[in-house]
Amino acid sequence: MTTTEQTAAERLEKQFRFLTEIDRLKHVERQNILADSSRRENSAEHSWHLAVLALCLSEHATARGFDLFKVVQLLLIHDIVEIDAGDAFLHDAGALAAQAAKEQAAAERIFGLLPDDQRDSWLALWHEFESGTSAESLLARALDRVQPALLHEATDGVIWQKYGTTHAQIQAKMAVVRDAAPPLWARIQQIIARARAQGKLA
Amino acid sequence: MTTTEQTAAERLEKQFRFLTEIDRLKHVERQNILADSSRRENSAEHSWHLAVLALCLSEHATARGFDLFKVVQLLLIHDIVEIDAGDAFLHDAGALAAQAAKEQAAAERIFGLLPDDQRDSWLALWHEFESGTSAESLLARALDRVQPALLHEATDGVIWQKYGTTHAQIQAKMAVVRDAAPPLWARIQQIIARARAQGKLA
Question: Which end of chain B is more exposed for a tag (fewer CB within 10 A), N or C?
């Protein structure tokens, strides 16, 4: 085996190691339940759903000329850190602060399984999603709010009710949708208004 | 509300209806089990895993200059038909023939929930995956064979053993990998050889 072949084989081993490791995202449970209320959603199937949302709903984005493939990539990888760090409950400020440090360490460990060039580019993608300043990451973060709203609508807001979520908390979380995709924000206002009328919000 | 606004609202309702419907893919169980052997994999999380494989392994493709975003799109939507048609066991020729008709009807019903232009383009994507003639669909179909092999490796081929899968059946299914991505095919040969040596293949 030549050095080049050995390097190629080593690259592939690292990639297979990473791809086997991320299978664990299928075990990370989210707060949300599925549309038929049968069980909680896991972060792998959530990431798939989000990527399809991006393909389906991109016409509603405020931004023009953005890179939709980039949006999809951000959504496919943004939750991988939860393998180590778990899924933090969105409205708990204390948990979110502690979560940031855990997620940084998780990103370095898990993306660090990849060959160096891929480790660097995937870490950069993850940081882009977290910082949320590019048109692509703003839309990705907005869709990450829209998808749970879709499930809240299907399940009559029982999860909002269970966790005592307030109207103000939801509206604060949805601000990113108003900026990135106003038609989606308007649609979500209907979902929130209905849940509020039904007494599901604290 | 003007006619244009009404049409925009109707488009969004159709898209939300579709996106809620496809939540059901999270309930479609595959034959494969997860890497930790804890349970069977569902088709939504499988689709996510496949899309990440595409992002990670595209350098090993034989084709040059292909559209990686197209590959990812094909993988994200290819299993949606299983919501109606279920997951057919790969080595059963009879089931596969009946499956084709069921999947065609499923594609028309489910993608038919979308606005007409999206229905047409998503149906076209699904047909492209099924026909497997473009560089993108050949790579997508190859990755759809590589991902289960990754799980078979992690679980010591117990699913191959359970279903009495033969060495010839596996090699026939892996032919598409040999053509589309030879380095991945060579790596999978190691997995198959090990399973064979351990007596896991019929």
Answer: N
pLDDT of the residue at A99 = 86
Cα angle vertex B61, ends A109, B35, to 5°? 45
CB interface of A with B, residues 34-63, below 8 Å: 34-36, 38, 41-42, 44-45, 47-49, 51-53, 55-57, 60
Instruction: For residue A86, give every residue at least 6 positions away whose Cβ sits within 8 Å of its Cβ, in sequence order, or none.
Output: A28, A99, A102
Token pair 């997995």 is at which residue? B191
Each residue's pLDDT tens digit, B26-59: 999 999 999 999 999 999 999 999 999 999 999 9
List Cβ neighbours of B145 (8 Å cut-off, separation of 6 or more): B173, B174, B176, B177, B188
Q: Who's near B5: CB < 8 A, 6+ residues apart?
A: none
**For position A94, what pLDDT does the model report?**
78
Please identify among residues 124-183 of chain B the ones whose CB lies closer than 8 Å to any CB of chain A: 150-151, 153-154, 183
Out of B41, B44, B76, name the one closest to residue A55 (CB). B76
Task: Please name the residue that has the structure tokens 């360490």.
Answer: A105
CA of A15 vs chain B CAs: smallest distance (Å): 7
* Chain A contact for B116 (CB, 8 A cutoff): no
CB A165 within 8 A of CB A91: yes
The 10 Å Cβ neighbour count of residue B9 is 14
By C-alpha distance, which of A148, A142, A176, A191 is closest to A41? A148
Selecting from A44, A118, A150 the residue whose C-beta is nearest the C-beta of B45 gives A44
DSSP string, chain B: --HHHHHHHHHHHHHHHHHHHGGGGGG-EEEEE-TTSSSEEEHHHHHHHHHHHHHHHGGG-S-SS--HHHHHHHHHHTTTTHHHH----TT-HHHHHHHHHHHHHHHHHHHTTS-HHHHHHHHHHHHHHHH--SHHHHHHHHHHHHHHHHHHHHTTTHHHHHTT--HHHHHHHHHHHHHH-HHHHHHHHHHHHHHHHTT---
